[in-house]
Amino acid sequence: MSHIFVNNSPDSNGDVLEFRIRFCYSDSSVNVPVYVVLLHYPMRNRVGDTVATAVTNLDIHDISRTCRTYGIKRYFIVTPVTEQHRVVGRILSHWKRDVSKAWHPDRFEALARVDLAKDFESVKAEIHSAHGEYPEVVLTDASPLPNAVTYVDYRRELESPERSKPVLIVFGTGWGISDVFYPEVHRILAPVYGLKNDPDGEYNHLSVRAAAAIILDRLFGH
Q: Which of 35, 79, 97, 122 is deepest in the core (most CB within 10 A)?
């Protein structure tokens, strides 16, 4: 995002009827290979224990469509739970059939970019195999963490012509990614915040599907 424009629209009495802020994205493009991973382990539960969370059908479908919209090369779903692999594998196999392609080509195209993995190491290994180097691991989190980079600044980094290293953007589930994962992280993105000074009180509890769409649009939208 390069500029912010404020538009005030007065009526015939000169009173302001509308106040809008329009974000204008830069004309540059991101040419580095970008991947997304949705972790289901190691996650925190509501009391802070490290757990494996359940994969949801909505996260499979909706995040895959967002990834396809913003040019993400692959969307990895990571869970160590064997039964979850059976369920998710069945869903993916259905949508990767020729009959699904004929009946719902847009959904087929999005889900064709989804891969299922047992652990994070296998995701990194696959990216290394494709590009000859490991990716820069970028953490997203709803809480403010030290040394977080803004979306404007990180987008500017990715648009640099000198930039070539693959990027792996990490989203979490449950009550957030456990800090045992933090040694894997190279960069941290700032949280997505809602309404400032909300009269009903602060509320910051987006679904991961909504957060993924907002974040990918800020980094790669035009």
A: 35
The residue whose two tokens read 């979850």 is 84
What is the C-alpha separation between 105 and 82, in angstroms, rounded?
A: 29
- The phi, psi pair for 36, rounded to 5°, reads -125, 140
Name the 3-class secondary structure at 62.
helix
Pair 141, 170: CB distance under 8 Å: no
Q: Which among 47, 51, 118 has a CA at the least distance from the CA of 88? A: 118
**Which pTM does this prediction carry?**
0.87
For the chain, the distance separating the N- and C-terminal CA atoms, rounded to the nearest angstrom, is: 9
Beta bridge partners of 86: none
Candidates 193, 202, 185; CA nearest to 146 is: 185
Model confidence at 3, pLDDT cuts 50, 70, 90, reads: very low
Q: Which of 109, 100, 27 is nearest to 72 (CA)?
A: 109
Q: How are beta strands 167-171 and 34-39 bridged, if at all?
A: parallel
Distance CA(195)–CA(206), nearest Å, equals 12
Q: What structural domains does the chain harbor?
A: 27-220 (3.40.1280.10)
pLDDT 10s digits, 81-132: 999 999 999 999 999 888 888 899 999 999 999 999 999 999 999 999 999 9
Tokens coding 161:
């012509």
